[in-house]
């Protein structure tokens, strides 16, 4: 159960009184998530989501509020946080930072169809187009600058073959990106897996959980999406889902020449990013709560497939 700090009805009711959100009818803990305590809150006027932040850098929470406010103002399907009577969104509840959000419609797509892939590509392209003008700044915490020191922490737990694979890849990325032209920058979701989206049928109800949000290479975000949304269990890219997401994305924000050149390498680097982060959770820094870590081998498989097969061709953009 991903509720690490239980709340009483009285606590939630008092918290709600700060907002123009109605009176509490019911509160229910959400049995999902790995880092924060989440509750579905029903008032006499609306459905809400209450999040208590259990770990992470709390001083970075204002960045996430600003980013969600910005994207909400630009009509992206994101849950802009509720602000209280004084215009403040971030509060403390049970001695934890807390935010209140509207509950967006839909469910996670376990096996996304092409219509859902098209909707996701369109929304991400729109988000990246407007996020290039977002004034906030938070360096990407999981880019190449993180890979370089952190991969050494897991090498002792790997086979000689996997040690060589990881060390060689990191060295290749460093050589490639040190010489590559700068890529377009903007605000990223940072973790836009299928379970961080909600679909009401084929309609994208929302992109959620922006707590890996940051600023950096827009291509990094897109590669994360393809490695999850358009990838089969054996690591192969699904051509239809791949082409559908990328065509819809580029209808909003066409990739430039530098991005197209860097695309195969970015797919590899973001696969290794998740292989490494999951290895760290298993062997080095287990979660504070009793949760089952994600399987690191999933992204080792994806990385090896990207090395064997390369990337599928990028769709061309109509002129």
UniProtKB/TrEMBL annotation:
GO terms for biological process: threonine biosynthetic process. It comes from the Bacteria. GO terms for molecular function: ATP binding; homoserine kinase activity. Its EC number is 2.7.1.39. It is an enzyme of class 2 (transferase). Pfam families: APH. SUPFAM superfamilies: Protein kinase-like (PK-like). Pathway: Amino-acid biosynthesis; L-threonine biosynthesis; L-threonine from L-aspartate: step 4/5. The keyword Nucleotide-binding applies. The keyword Phosphoprotein does not apply. InterPro entries: Aminoglycoside_PTrfase, Homoserine_kinase_II, Kinase-like_dom_sf, Pseudomonas-type_ThrB. CDD domains: HomoserineK_II. HAMAP family: Homoser_kinase_2 (MF_00301). Belongs to the pseudomonas-type ThrB family. This is Homoserine kinase.
